[in-house]
Amino acid sequence: MTATLRVSQNRLEKFIYEAFLKTGLPESDARTMGALMAEADLQGSDGHGVIRMVPYITRFKGGGVNLTPNIRVVKEKAAMALIDGDNGMGHLVMKQATELAIKKAKTAGVAWVGSVHSNHAGPASLYARMPLAHDMIGLYFAVGNANHLPPWGGLSMLLSTNPIACAIPAMHEAPVILDMATTVTSYGKVKAKRQRGEMMPEGWMINRDGTPLLDPQHADDGLLLPIGGYKGYGLALIIGMLAGTLNGAALGKDVVDFNHDASTPTNTGQAIMVIDPDAFGEVKEFKERMDSVIQEMRNSERIKGVDRIWLPGEQSHQKRIDYARDGIPIPDALAKQLHGLATELGIAPLVAN
Amino acid sequence: MTATLRVSQNRLEKFIYEAFLKTGLPESDARTMGALMAEADLQGSDGHGVIRMVPYITRFKGGGVNLTPNIRVVKEKAAMALIDGDNGMGHLVMKQATELAIKKAKTAGVAWVGSVHSNHAGPASLYARMPLAHDMIGLYFAVGNANHLPPWGGLSMLLSTNPIACAIPAMHEAPVILDMATTVTSYGKVKAKRQRGEMMPEGWMINRDGTPLLDPQHADDGLLLPIGGYKGYGLALIIGMLAGTLNGAALGKDVVDFNHDASTPTNTGQAIMVIDPDAFGEVKEFKERMDSVIQEMRNSERIKGVDRIWLPGEQSHQKRIDYARDGIPIPDALAKQLHGLATELGIAPLVAN
Fold first, then answer.
1. Does A263 share its domain with A326?
2. A45 & A172 share domain
3. Are residues A130 and A147 in contact, defined by beta-carbon separation less than 8 angstroms?
4. Are residues B145 and B271 in the same domain?
5. Domain identity same for A20 and A128
6. Signed CA dihedral, A30, A145, B140, A77: sign only
């Protein structure tokens, strides 16, 4: 991937904001979308940032998303809420959900807010991270927006790579932030192997007869594998039930493949949980214990050839620092696509800053 | 494994109760231990049931466990509590924790109760299941009691196979119950391969140089692999932080290997979360949606040679039915060990009923 264009987070935010304003989002919603999508790119979640602009706008044009939703709390107790996204963009729904969960956790100690009639919300870690600013822990679960995974032993694509994310604050160390899909690899990585003409390692995919699929040219005929076999299937399923079925959102055959359908509402479900460490004891002491565990892991004896032990989220944390300094890289093909979009919408194109 | 002895759940409960009474547990605690450990065997969690009696009693004798603990709530808010187990058996601590979480979830919608100064509590699903009787969802996290897993790329055994369990009720279908360790396999399965003189499949373990370890005779020199590589490492770590570090319980090098140390308190940490579906909408409708998702998975097209698609917990559910009817099988070696224990303690031995 060559990326000759690098842009600042601010510039990227403004570009996304202007594009969404032109496509019909209210000003404050366009601003929220700009902030969250640019932050996705800043942390290196480049499969879930500005690369999604054109697919999102395709769904706007197809009528699949409500541009002026009435996002509202429909159920509420001291430590929970259910938010109806009214088919608005998931970013708007889950930002509101997370802010509400933070507020409730301050009082109740722990809170859980689910969504129904939501949409794709970008990378899971965006929302799991939000409580960190309040020295709180975030956990995020979502039903993915395209089914790529069968139940274990099966061939019918009934599950998505339903992700889980968890962000836990530390004192001097970077927060621990896990953001993972429940499959061994993503379709994006399979496509990258295909482009480079490389074979895949055993364990990524299987053929429909259960044998290992190694040639990515045949990926369309195969199945992604869940992590740990039946365990990953189980995880994908319970995440889907907690983020989808509990809220009345889609799971299984009801999931709409938003890459191939621009008009049907997805009824996406998500959930954010917030835990306030202040309820459990001294926050300072908790964060010091976190530092200590983090340092133990990092200082582990290493397998020969391994330069460094990484903590979950540490590489992404480093990208935030690098990209804030050097700009966010926009791959050439994406830069060209976004230039076309700017021309079409009559907004200023992204150029190096 | 041959098991010529089969006993009823009631008989097994009584045996465990009498043994613990003789070894110094208060009557009501001995009764709770009997009920929970026999239930573990009933559901087929035979690595976590009566097989643990002798190791537990070894720790009692070694002074590693407090036989008359003052288990108490030390922190509390509307949707959370922290329970100090006072170094009592984990079963007693986590039963109390789960009952409190159920009570709080009825009011607050969701609740989370953590433990500190606890001990091994048996299979994770025992506690995740308890809310099912109230049509509620349970999630359980624990720090394992022996470190078998290094951080990804490392060689130092700093993590346990920290389990996660989740139980979700359905209407006519059996509840979905996931109970999984974060490693591809357990040491128990490795030992079984060794006993049978079989090789292990690639992906179970690696040598200390990172190459696949296939011969279980050399297992003591190798490392268990986490599910999905760095993903399973990340899961084991965040489960440990949520169940351990948050509560002030041990994680990392502070974890005491209770198989090799009978006297040091383990300071085990666990957490139970309860979600009340009634807060999210009509429980009946939720449970019907669960049935529908379960049936979709089961009816998936299958890979050739696969007879049936299982839901998480379905095989364990079947064992409950079979063992309730036929009795719980006690492997010969275990039966012999328990016979010795009965003689030593002067209680009635387990015999076929």
1. no
2. no
3. no
4. yes
5. no
6. positive
Which amino acid does the sequence have at A292? S
In a domain, B241, yes or no: yes
- Boundary residue ending a domain (A250, A278, A306): A278
The token pair that represents A86 in the structure block: 């009214």
Mean pLDDT to the nearest integer, B340-351 = 96
Question: CB neighbours of A10 closer than 8 A, spacing ≥ 6?
Answer: A38
Instruction: State ipTM.
Output: 0.96
> Which parts of B86-210 are beta strand (E)?
110-118, 137-142, 164-168, 176-180, 205-206
Tokens found for residue A158 = 């009934």
Whether residue A127 lies inside any domain: the answer is yes
Interface test with A, best of B132, B135, B238 (most A CBs within 10 A): B238
User: Chain A residue with minimal CA distance to B277?
Assistant: A246
Same domain, A21 and A168: no
Q: How many domains does chain B have?
A: 3
A227:B230 CB<8 A: no
Inter-chain residue contact A237 with B297, CB threshold 8 Å: yes
Verify that A29 and A53 share a domain, yes or no: yes
Instruction: Give tens-digit pLDDT for A56-86.
Output: 999 999 999 999 999 999 999 999 999 999 9
- Chain B residues closer than 8 Å to A213 by CB: none
Contacts of B184 in chain A (CB under 8 A): 228-229
Q: pTM (2 decimals)?
A: 0.96
List the single best residue of B303, B304, B307, B314 to mutate versus A (max A Cβ within 10 A). B303
> Do A40 and A12 fall into the same domain?
yes
Q: Are residues A169 and A31 in the same domain?
A: no
B20 found inside a domain: yes
- Is B108 an interface residue toward A (CB < 8 Å)? yes
Please name the residues in contact with A1: beta carbons below 8 A apart, sequence gap of 6 or more: A331
B298 C-beta neighbours (distance < 10 Å), count? 15
Q: Cβ–Cβ of A279/B154 closer than 8 Å?
A: no
Task: For residue range A191-236, list pLDDT tens digits in order.
Answer: 888 888 899 998 899 998 889 999 999 988 888 999 999 999 999 9
- A-B contacts (CB, under 8 Å): 259
| Buried-state track B225-250, b at ≥16 Cβ within 10 A, e below 16 | bbbbbebbbbbbbbbbbbbbbbbbbb
List the single residue in A246, A277, A310 with the smallest CB-CB distance to B277: A246
**A132 assigned to some structural domain:** yes
Q: Which CATH number does the domain housing residue B348 bear?
A: 1.10.1530.10
- List the single residue in A82, A176, A303 with the smallest CB-CB distance to B153: A303
Q: What CATH number is associated with residue A102?
A: 3.30.1370.60
Tell whether A234 is within 8 A of chain B (Cβ): yes
> Which residues form the domain of B80?
65-183+226-280
Residues of A in contact with B202 (CB under 8 A): 202
Q: Give contacts of A 49-88 with B, CB under 8 A.
A: 75, 77-80, 82
